[in-house]
Amino acid sequence: MSNLKLNIAAIIFAIFALTSCQKETMSELNPTTETTTQRNIPTEGIHIYNAAAKTSATTRTRRNQATSRERNFTMISADAGPIFDDTHGEGNFIDKTWGACLADYAWDFKGEDNVYIFEVKNQPEALVTHHVTISDLTDDVDLFVYTLDENSVIRDCKAISMNGGTTAESVDMQGLEAGFYIIVVDGWTAGVTSSYNMEFYTSAVSANPPSAFEINGIRRVNCFGNVTAENLVDNLWKITTYGNGYVTIDTYVELGRDEWSIYLEGTNQETTAQIDFYQNLLTVNYGNTGGISATEILDYQYVTDFISSILFGNEQVNLTKINDTDWLYDSGIPHFGTILLKEINKDGTTIELAIPEFGANTMGLEKMTLNLAKKEATMTFEGGGEGLNIISEVQYYQLSNG
Questions:
Q1: CB within 8 Å of 202: residues ≥ 6 apart
Q2: Cα 200 to Cα 134: distance, rounded to the nearest angstrom
Q3: CA–CA distances in Å: residue 26 to residues 34, 37, 129, 141, 366
Q4: β-pair partners for 93
């Protein structure tokens, strides 16, 4: 019996020793795989934007070669809505051998990836920011934006967003030059794939907003989506929306202006609006329903664009606009009749007129400056003399719809 117990004990010891040996051997053959939380990324992540990187891929060059290496790009457009996608099954297209965004980091980026291409149009009147965000990640993928050379092959790194784990990635790129760029969603190492929700949209501010002085003379604002804001008279405005088979007109009272904006309140006092020339937006806040609409401004027109005639203190003295640049000045003196003046400059509230080169019967008049804010017309004569007329009334063309 004693020998039996010794034999059983020996067998148990041998099994334990063998099991321990097998575990150690398996551990040596299959070392622990580095997890996404072991990438040694700073808590704040890695975020880089290279403003100097420029693209050379244009519509013309892409007609000749629209792919890079062995895989086509997926064309996307900003502001087209969210994109739900997954890198699983897409294969590895871009890795560290490409250099550019990836060269300075320890990881090989051999995870599967998705590649998108987008075009930036030339918009000289707007300073546009392109925003790209991927969220709802299921594994640790990163976000990169590249410029392309004239053959649509990756050239430079434009932007990087690398966070650890499943934290969302995002980049903001202001002032991209016209041309094509690519967005890459990439796993940091082999075997890393993720589904995600990508949002790609733009925001813009005016590259050349009007000055505070010019804003005082703005009478009409034209926006995308057939929306107009029109100053009817004094501080009364109307905002018109032209839809498919309908027209909506709302009236507003102007509350005030500052350096960049005009502030309006609906006559029902439940709706407010802001015409922001810096952000390039007409924003309406429907206080009664809580809804907000923001429409991008296409262009705006000054009060000086709509004048048909100007009357002075003496009702026989007047100016009449006869086309885009020509005015007729009736001095009220029968001997001189009417004098032709040409528009040489204007801004929000001022118009400068001058005698054309071969003008006749000018009374020695050289130039007339109309200051609508002061209701004055300053006349400059040959030899340096000046005269002043007081503007008694400004008459406007009927504004057309659209």
A1: 78, 79, 128, 129, 130, 131
A2: 9
A3: 17, 24, 52, 29, 99
A4: none
Taking the C-alpha atoms of residue 257 and residue 255, their distance in angstroms, rounded to an integer, is 7
User: 3: which 2 tokens?
Assistant: 């020998």
Q: Is the separation of the CB atoms in 128 and 176 below 8 Å?
A: yes
DSSP E strand stretches across 136-226 = 141-148, 154-162, 169-174, 179-187, 195-206, 218-223
Which two three-digit tokens encode residue 270? 């439940």
d(CA 310, CA 370): 10
Rounded Cα distance between 280 and 274, Å, is 10
SS3 of 383, please?
helix
Q: What is the separation, in whole angstroms, between the first and last Cα of the chain? A: 108
Q: What angle do CA 219, 210, 229 make, to 5 degrees?
A: 30
Q: What type of residue is 345?
A: N
Longest Cα separation, the chain: 148
- Give kind and range of the element (H or E) at residue 17: helix 2-29
In the chain, what are the domains? 36-205 (2.60.120.380), 212-303 (2.40.128), 306-396 (2.40.128)
The residue ranges of the chain whose pLDDT is under 50 are: 1-37, 66-70, 400-402
Among 152, 142, 129, 127, smallest CA distance to 79 is for: 129
Phi, psi of 337, deg, nearest 5:
65, -140
Tell me the torsion sign for CA atoms 132, 138, 144, 149.
negative
Q: What is the pLDDT of residue 183?
A: 95
* Rg, Å, the chain Cα set: 35
What φ, ψ does residue 193 adopt, rounded to 5°? Answer: -135, 160
β-bridge mates for residue 330, sequence order: 318, 338
pLDDT digits (tens, 9 = 90+) for 198-213: 999 988 777 777 766 6
Q: Are 149 and 155 in contact (CB under 8 A)?
A: yes
pLDDT digits (tens, 9 = 90+) for 66-125: 444 445 678 898 887 899 999 999 999 888 888 788 888 989 999 999 999 999 988 776
